Amino acid sequence: QENGQRRYGGPPPSWDGPPPERGSEIFVGKLPRDLFEDELVPLCEKFGRIYEVRMMMDFNGNNRGYAFVTFGNKMEAKAAMKQLNNYEIRSGRLLGVCASVDNCRLFVGGIPKTKKREEILAEMRKVTDGVVDVVDGSPIEVTLAKPVDKDSYVRYTRGTGGRGASLLQTDYAAYTLGQVLPRTGS
Length: 186
Description:
Elements: E1 5-9, E2 25-29, H1 37-45, E3 50-57, E4 63-71, H2 74-84, E5 88-90, E6 93-94, E7 96-99, E8 105-108, H3 117-127, E9 131-135, E10 140-144, H4 177-180
């Protein structure tokens, strides 16, 4: 278990080629808390090749009632969504399945009010590829273009960086706010 989730695959050993295209991931909700990959994977494999399953877990080792399943392509994901939504996984237990929503927003807190939108955008672009826009306000949001492959994701973790701020995580390499914005006198 890592970051509250357990992974199966991603990519599987026999995978050849790039990761699946956007739109290949589904959200599977309303899972019984004692259901695990040994039941979910065979069920999902009926609809196509599975690239990865991410099951959200609590600290007691039970699932949190939902998982994300990435298929080899969009068509397989769409077929799984159609067939698995309202599927009775156990007596009286219906799954809730829909398309996974790309989470391409990053919250950045603790930025001085004196920083202009353009300055924040320039600093973010120095350390992160794919920054599309910065929404100025309270809170400030940074919209990222979804990377083509998982290896190019960036993981933002809590860090003080001299500002006591935090960056929300997306995936992989870490930065703190102090690396994004230079210190100013105070």
